[in-house]
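Open question from group meeting: does this chain pack into something compact, or does most of it stay loose? Before anyone orders reagents, we agreed to write out a predicted structure and look at it together. Recording both the input and the output here so the notebook holds the full record.
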Amino acid sequence: MDLLNTLVEKGLRRELPSREEALAVLATSDDELLDVVAAAGKVRRQWFGRRVKLNYLVNLKSGLCPEDCSYCSQRLGSKAEILKYTWLKPDEASKAAAAGVAGGAKRVCLVASGRGPTDRDVDRVSRTIGAIKEQNADVEVCACLGLLSEGQAERLKSAGADAYNHNLNTSEATYGDITTTHTYADRVETVRHAQGAGLSACSGLIAGMGESDADLVDVVFGLRELDPDSVPVNFLIPFEGTPLADEWNLTPQRALRILAMVRFVCPDVEVRLAGGREVHLRTMQPLALHLVNSIFLGDYLTSEGQKGKADLDMIADAGFEVEGTDTTTLPGHRGGGCDSPCGTAPADGAEPAGADAGSARTDLVTVRRRGAGTDLAPNA
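Structure tokens returned:
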């Protein structure tokens, strides 16, 4: 396909595809899927070889969030029967993080529900970062605490944080349909705060919320313009008890096309396969490793992932290798903005066809009952 040859050439040059090209990737047929994966895989290998970075989530505070994000099981008014607990003590969080590091994780992601941290919360997380670094000096620590106020990013940086995560999640045009208690602009501002403090910015999206192809391209182009170092791609986990519980819009094939589109638009960025991969990609997860160069190990915030050992076996069986702490994830040139003007013009896109009702695997959504906040051993 001329389209794929063009996208590979642009990806190897770090050149931004056109919006039409990005939309065309999402419109490819299932018969063309392996060609799409192979093309995006060339770009992935150019910048990251066959390395896979492992990340491990520690949910510092679960549930009881005042925000109304429709996709979230921790949201205001959620009836999802998730674990609910207040802040873990630094030693508890450090113990949870150690399980992930022992499993091969290079980065530990500290997450807390809520609109954003108070200054007291920042102090608490700073002590937790110190406890983790004391036990594992080489591990990267990423904080994800919601919207940041002036000066908080600098304090986290001083405490030893390496990165800050705050996802854009969906396009600016549709953001108000998903969340009303804060704005897309609020999220952009927090990522800018993190970058201004010298933290490595991590910002991504959630696919499968009923968005159009144009919405997906909008948010990924928005991320390219924002220029984070890491782009997590989450696939909606439709928790019972949340407004999006019936949104089963993804097939494994569509999920792979979305990942390929992200790789073509963000060729030299750490693209991370995040929440929902087991639910939506299922047995096609190994193909995704040809598109992404980073995954989460084990469980997520409120849902369980596949066994950590299964993750490691999958990586090895697919011919990839786990990235060590002595390896720099990003290519040496990373640190600047886009190499060419980032697209901002609107584009039309048709609504995607929903997945067949019979293909939705509701049985694969398992609420986390182990690890942080429980007396049971974590999955790592």
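Observations to bring back to the group:
Strands lie at 51-61, 107-112, 140-144, 163-165, 200-202, 205-207, 230-235, 270-273, 294-296, 321-322.
The two ends are 41 Å apart (CA to CA).
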